[in-house]
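Need tokens for this chain, all 260 residues.
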Amino acid sequence: MSTIIYYFTGTGNSLYCARRIGDLLGDTTLVPIEGEGEKIAPLRADNIGLVFPVYAFGLPGVVKQFIKHLSPDNKGKYFFTVATNGGRVAGTLVLTRRMLGTKGIKLSAGYSVIMPTNMILLHETNEEKKKILFDSMEKKVREIVSAVKFHEYHAVETGTMSDRILRTGMLYRSALPFIKKMDHKFKADQGCIGCGLCSQVCPVHNIEIKNGIPSWNHQCEMCLSCLNLCPRQAVQYGNMSEGKQRYKNPYIEVKDLIRR
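Here are the structure tokens for all 260 residues:
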């Protein structure tokens, strides 16, 4: 039984989750979601997975575009989704199910997996908490794998009613049009050595190196890969990131996050 897992990742959490699912399932191909792409042809696999992080209590814009490009001929496959998040999945998976439904695709299972946050602008996760979350993630992955193997139905996991209505229904929908231009606060400080890694790890190719320093082109997903993965911690976001501990999934290497 073959599986294709499409994943979107910034600092490695969703890639790690997708990789662990694939390891346990076997016969699994992992494919990164990068840029807005073109129409996705019928997929030659028994199971189709989407693994992505929750941004602003909803789907990353690039994942929404990916779903819009799925061919209706993909219906009839076992589709499952996994939304990695820092503790609030809200209505993300409900929205995902609805979007897939517009393509004639039934979502058979939708899971929320809580992982350490990379949103260091607002939160930091200590090492003890990280270990607890990764142990919990491993248990959840085994639950997901069991469901996929036997093509079990699993109702999409959601947050509270207020989270679904206020955060996904209102905050996410109002914030989504502005996220691409939120990169205006990114900057490189004097520690920048012009290595270009920030450009290489950007999943939507939003960063160019001009005159030896990064320039952001306002097509941002706010995945914070540039901020968290800079080897000199020279990428800053206004005055909100200075002195903050950076985050990368400890089980993923930077080379795995460099885009094609």
